Amino acid sequence: MDNGQVNRGSGDRMGGVNLPALRGHNEALLLDLLRGAGPAGLGRSELAARTGLTPQAVSKITARLGAEGLVAEAGRAASTGGKPRTLLRLVPEARYAVGVHLDRDELRAVRVDLTGRVVAEGAGPLDFGAGPEAAVAAVEAAVREVARGADPGAGPVALLGVGVAAPGPLDHWAGVMGRVTGFPQWEGFALREVLEGRLGVPVVLDKDTNAGAAAAAAGFGAGGFGAGGFAGGPGAAVYVHVGTGLGAGLWLGGGVYRGARSAAGEFGHQVLRLDGPPCRCGGRGCAEVLCLGAVARGDLREAARILGEGVANLVALLDVDRVWLGGRVVAAAPEVFVAGVRGVLGGRVAPRGAPPVGPVVELAEVGVAEGAAELALASLFGRAG
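and the corresponding structure tokens:
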């Protein structure tokens, strides 16, 4: 990806899609069910039974969705004595979303279809410290690059939106960056508004850890990423990210939990050692400075043990039943980090001497950029993300 080149001027807006019919709850509900059904599809009677809608309503809605190119026939079900039922499926390539992971030293962008499958991607270096304007130009160039069709002569594909995952803190609801640790120049920058003006499509801004949690939840279960959307996702879970920073995304009550001020999940700045080494947040002995310090020394087992202590605190507080580990540091030594976190959790004693029953600890199979794209798709399928 060439982050220095913009393929089209800022005034050349992307291929946005205006689909008023999809704003309704019933349409989104049917699309989510068809997404979960996969290529095999579902019949209209099944859709009616699962949603409580009348068969007539389902027929009208699916006809409208078919006219928009979002739904197509998937064949016919085997006859059980009557006329074989026509099955319907989601058309994955009908629309797309782009997800961007805006890290402190790297930018990665992916384009996904309606099932969450990555169809185009690119990555390149980024200097987050260079400030918002340079980052905006890099994001715009990256989005335009991955939004091009396979044919070099083709225009941009139809985008439903763009999800941007950035270091926190930030205000997800307002789309405004906070005082990112070590980068005070970002505070108050309206990143979502600026990008929407440059790209001409809806933009969702969230913390990288929340996007990681969304990606892990969407990929949860035997169906893989996008199968069933979030409907078949886990109960209470946490995504822990170890990269240029240390953070957590919380999946509680069937969705990302952000807190009243989008500040939930500041996992890396819990104090594990009083009067420990200074952290860039201004505190001392934070999990982030201890863990990343061990990584810098090459002591990955110690880094995993420190991470495990922080995770154990979180598990004790929230009683989650699943922990996903992700980020480039974990990806470089996955067995070490999974074993380290499991070891710490396994050593904790349950209340009243009961045998410890800890959460499942596993690697996150999908990246932050994919999660950002999933957040951009959420409204299409009737989810808040």
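(Above: one complete record from the training split.) Confidence is low (pLDDT under 50) at residues 1-11, 18-23, 221-232.
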